[in-house]
Design goal:
Structural class: alpha+beta
Helix content: 25-40%
Shape: globular
Strand content: 25-35%
Radius of gyration: 16 Å
Oligomer: single chain
Largest sheet: 4 strands, antiparallel
Strand order of the largest sheet: 2-5-1-6
Length: 143
């Protein structure tokens, strides 16, 4: 099964040398295990463009589509205890174009992995979260 690991951040260019080293080591481990399909970091949200062509008029807006406020670690823990994922809790804000404001969660990087099942994906995502020191949203690709 293939899964997308979305790295969720609320600041740009914040990875420390130790985090980058841990990410490289995890990438090597994923490659060696045959699990890594693709991985990459993304440019800052203010470098993005959002395209909406649903009505055939291709509206292009500078900036990323912001997802809303990033939950605090305590709020994420409370949401998980209530049965909701931390990534789902981050989706609560209104969509808007442009650069995200302070504390706004956005996708800062990703991995695409190929693993036997969701349990393996969640185990690997926990390692990814620890390595990059960020929240990681896990989503299965539809078959």
């Amino acid at each position: 099964m293939q899964f997308l690991f979305g790295v969720i951040d609320d600041a740009t260019a914040t990875a420390s040398a130790e985090e980058m080293s841990a990410i490289r080591a995890l990438n090597d481990q994923m490659r060696a295990g045959g699990h890594r399909v693709f991985a990459g970091g993304l440019a800052a949200p203010d470098m993005a463009s959002t395209v909406d062509n649903r009505d055939g008029r291709a509206l292009i807006t500078p900036g990323a589509l912001a997802t809303g406020p990033a939950p605090s670690r305590a709020a994420a823990t409370d949401a998980e205890a209530a049965g909701a994922s931390a990534a789902g809790a981050a989706q609560g804000g209104a969509a808007q174009g442009g650069a995200p404001g302070p504390g706004t969660a956005y996708l800062s990087g990703l991995w695409i992995v190929d693993v036997p099942d969701e349990t393996a994906a969640l185990t690997l995502a926990a390692e990814a979260s620890r390595a990059c020191n960020r929240r990681v949203e896990v989503r299965a690709f539809l078959e």
